[in-house]
Task: structure prediction
Amino acid sequence: MEIIVHRGTHQIGGCATEIRTGTTRILIDFGAELPDETGYVPPDHLEIDGLNVGAPGFDAVLLTHYHGDHLGLINRIPDSIPVYLGRSAVEVHKCFARRLARRDPEGFEVSQRLRTLDAMVPLVIGDIRVTPLPADHSAWDALMFLVEADGKRVLHTGDFRLHGFRGKATLPVLEKYAAGVDVLIMEGTRLSGGSHAGISERELQGRLKEAIRANKYVFVLCASTNIDRLASIQNVTPRGRYFICDHYQKEILDVVRACAKSGCYGFPKVTTYGKNLEHRFRKQGFVMAVRGNPLFAGIAAGYPDAVLVYSMWEGYLDGRNPALSAFVKPFKESGRMQVLHTSGHAAPEDLKAVCDAVKPARGVIPIHGRRPEDFDGLGLSAPVIALADGEVFQL
Ligand SMILES: [Zn+2]
Ligand SMILES: [Zn+2]
Result:
């Protein structure tokens, strides 16, 4: 078996990891570069022979989750190569692709032919067997992949954390299914700094509850696909107050409700915003899930005493997203903004806990971080295998 991290050994995002045998090639994630602090996304020249250049040579592409830094380049994959994503994640991604269909018709088409994966249900591709395992992340239905071939076993974590609602299940699952792998390919975002320090999602929910109790009109700015955060908002919206969102957000929550096995994601209280309902919202008070765009800014302007709970990474407020900054500005300037966020990525001690759970015999390959050598300070129980992008690792 060979492992090639085509991109991601020395950067966050833009992930692409190949695992191949003598007869089969699979790619895990084909992500776009993240924008820099000016909002600029450099032209993406990532070329992988057999995938987006040369004759098609890959047997499958498997996506850990729907964030752009993991699937942003899937438009460049020829139709003949199947692309897989978690079953519920596909439905959420389709909502997103439908919304952007006019701007990105190709992306919409690609979303329609995504194939589905189910956690714990192995997929056999040539002589490679992949078992998706559930991952706790700020994307819904994120997966880790246990890859087995040539008598070797590799765990690819994708993006994950242990401090979300579903984080507790991760270590027992890994101990049961992935203990004693040969290689652990693991994300290390938080080691590069920049990501928000971690309170647990449950602690965050408690603080959100206080903010909502203390204020009649509350806007919560979070990613439309951060389903755990939206579940938190709903959980702490008191009886008699409205939990409002727009049509697009409602569409996503309806998809989640239809897919979810847990009642926690039922979203029974949510009301779609309509101008005709404003008098009721004003009378009873509300919590509204919003995004940083002029539409929501227009609504917010009608509530000069409302507060904003900013529930995304604070780095986005550095000017790279002008619409977001414009939305936030009046709240910030009048002292009506509170930041309540927690990262979608694992804390350093949780990276160590995962390594201890799976005990990789050969070592850990760091990805999704700027410096693989940052892993050296974790005191891991396995050697760190620092690769360069494109380097072939023989297993
Ligand atoms: Zn990522
Ligand atoms: Zn992610």
Remarks:
- The chain has two domains: 2-194+344-394, 201-339.
- The longest strand covers residues 128-135.
